[in-house]
Amino acid sequence: MTTTLDQRYLTFSLGPEGYAIPLLSVREVIAVPEITPMPFTPAHFLGLMNLRGQVISVIDLRNKLGIKPLTATENAIIICELQSGHLGILVDSVDAVLTPTADAISSPPEVKGSLNRECIAGVFRHEEKLILLIDLEKTLSGDDRKAMSKPAVAQTQSPNKVA
Amino acid sequence: MDEFDEIKICFLDEAEQLLSATEQCFLDLEHKPGTDILEKIFRLAHNLKGSSKAVGFDGLGAFTHNLETFLLRIKEGKVVLGPEVVDLLLRCNDHLKFFVAELRANFAAQVNSEQLLDEIRQHMEEKQPDKVSEVVAPVVVTASPVVETQPAEILPEMRTEEPSDQGEGEASHEEIFVSQPSSQPSAVVAPAQAQAQADETIRVSLTRLERLLNHVGEMVILHSVLKEQSNTNTSSFLKKTIHQLGKVTREVQDISMGLRMLPLKPTFMKLQRIVRDTSRALGKEIALEMIGDDTELDKTVIEKLSDPLVHIVRNAIDHGVEGPEERVAAGKSAKGTIKLKAYHHVGQVVIEVADDGRGLDARKLVASAVKKGLIRPDAKLTDDEAYNLIFAPGFSTKDAVTDVSGRGVGMDVVRTNVDQLRGQTQIETKLGQGTCFRITLPLTLAIIDAMIVRLAKERFVIPLHHIYESVQASEMKMQIISGRGEVLLLRGENIPFHRLSTLLGRSTAGGLESGTALVIRASQGNAMAVFVDEVVGQSQAVIKPLGKEVKQIKGFSGSAILGDGLPSVILDIPELVKRLYPNLLTNGSGNRAARSIGA
Lengths: 163, 599
Prior knowledge:
The structure holds 2 protein chains of 2 kinds.
Chain A: E1 9-14, E2 17-22, E3 26-30, E4 45-51, E5 54-60, H1 61-65, E6 76-82, E7 85-91, E8 93-98, E9 120-126, E10 129-134, H2 136-140, H3 143-149, H4 151-162
Parallel strand pairs in A: 2-10, 5-7
Antiparallel strand pairs in A: 1-2, 1-8, 3-6, 4-5, 6-7, 9-10
Chain B: H1 3-31, H2 35-54, H3 58-75, H4 83-105, H5 114-125, H6 132-146, H7 154-165, H8 171-183, H9 185-196, H10 206-230, H11 236-258, E1 261-263, H12 265-282, E2 286-291, E3 296-298, H13 299-320, H14 324-329, E4 336-345, E5 348-355, H15 362-371, H16 383-388, H17 410-420, E6 424-430, E7 434-442, E8 447-455, E9 458-463, E10 467-472, E11 477-481, E12 485-490, E13 493-499, H18 500-503, E14 516-521, E15 527-532, E16 534-544, H19 548-551, E17 556-561, E18 567-571, H20 573-580, H21 592-596
Helix pairs in contact in B: 1-2, 1-4, 1-12, 2-3, 3-4, 3-5, 4-5, 6-8, 10-11, 12-13, 13-17
């Protein structure tokens, strides 16, 4: 089977868990720059960063998914190209580019979690570790997008961000 | 979209430009009829006809062809060029514009042109065709060799349709339409076009331009970082290079910023048409003078400015300039004048619309406003406040709504749009002598003059044009109104006082020992003071849009990258106040004139 670009995934870690996104949706991976926090945003919205003249929002995916961060690991930001534009995603570490075969990817297991099932496009095994293919559009869209603009949510969240 | 469709779209773009050029020519024709203008129109019409047939818009081509016939008659002096004829020509132009717009929506669109064609025929039939053959003979001869420059299939098509569209005795003309303009491209057309297009242009998408601007902005920041570093370096060569890099960088920045700028000319041309049509409809004689139509403004500014200018000009024609009898009775010339003027003034662009009409009467304005219930009958207004009443929504001195005015919407649009452009409107008027509307605008929307303020460790940007003045903490006179908050007493005015920390939802309300209060006056709404820890400085900032995730959050109008390369949000203070106290501003958010009376 020949590999096409579409089958390549970038895997990264959030805490102890492994995730992957299609490589084509990744623009670049950068070290964490200085980030300007923004008022009235939920806790997982870290703020704004300057990527060569472009102002980009940065989101802490661990916080969003309710995963405890591992303090010891290095941090990185994946700049993704979503339909709505560029978005920076803070992850614990960027691991590898993998090309799982189509039959290695199975549908997500039926477990209860903080994440909606439809946000996981599938799972595959890599070196005894389960890696979840996460759909960023779905994860960050819907009620969450709206929540960001809701003043009530935002105001209770902002003080702890400043601290 | 296949290739041919692209050609069609390309043609429609071109046709639009051609039509605005012809409109201008028709208007010129009325003032100073001359063969050179007619020649130009003729060429433009011929271009349009030729290329519309080439891309398969036969309906458009057929109509243009008839228009061309008519133009030829005018050129030959067989149709007298009076106002009605110019009127008809202008309506034909409108019709063509409409046609082009329809074609843009649907390539197969057909528009019924019969009514206009009938009118054209009527005008032509009034004069009998004579001496035709003399004119034709020499032209036809020269025509044949040059015709090849046109797409070959056009010619037979044109001829085949003539009999159906034209009356008898016209056949001899057809040769001319086809041949005359195309017979001269080498001699006459080419130099004329070269003159008009001396500066060659290309179309570039705005997204690409914006990407360029982003990188240029980044370059400026990188340069300033380099420059800072070079202070610790002793190499004079390095210093010199960085200094030169700075010069080049600034130059590149200036040029790239200028790429978004367009001249005001097309906007002014549109107004010329409005002046002509509106004044004729109202039976007034008005001349329009235009000065500085080559003044350039940001594309977005120009787009937003078009409507306000139309409203001001219509207002000037309807309310400003008197009818001929009234003017003569007042010792003025029967013909009124409206002056459009655009010029640069200290980093801003000023646009003036001045008429020599009757001027604004403060007492009448107040009386009308009282009648419409906009202000209280016992209100005391200064003259300036009274003049500003005309910007209030729903204000009109007219009792009846007409085609031209009376709904009280127009001038409200002026204030709102100019406001959105971060500009100001001013009125200068003298009773019996005229009124001048002055709009002052920033050169571009992409850059703002910004005040950078600090709150604890965070920095925020506040647009400078909102800020009226700043008051140091040590000079503030405060008054606490229990249950309503704090008020800053400033020269007899009581200004609601807000702490930025509270506005941003921070729990810590610090003391007022040190810091600065900024007095904010948006043109819509009350004055307010906002207290910040420190004013860090002023600078120009390039506005960057916020991502979709945070765009809807009220109170932030964008972001900007500060001198050290870190992004910062641009605060919209009135919005922030509204967000925190939703009921506070609703009463006072109307027009400033109305508000100062205590509405």
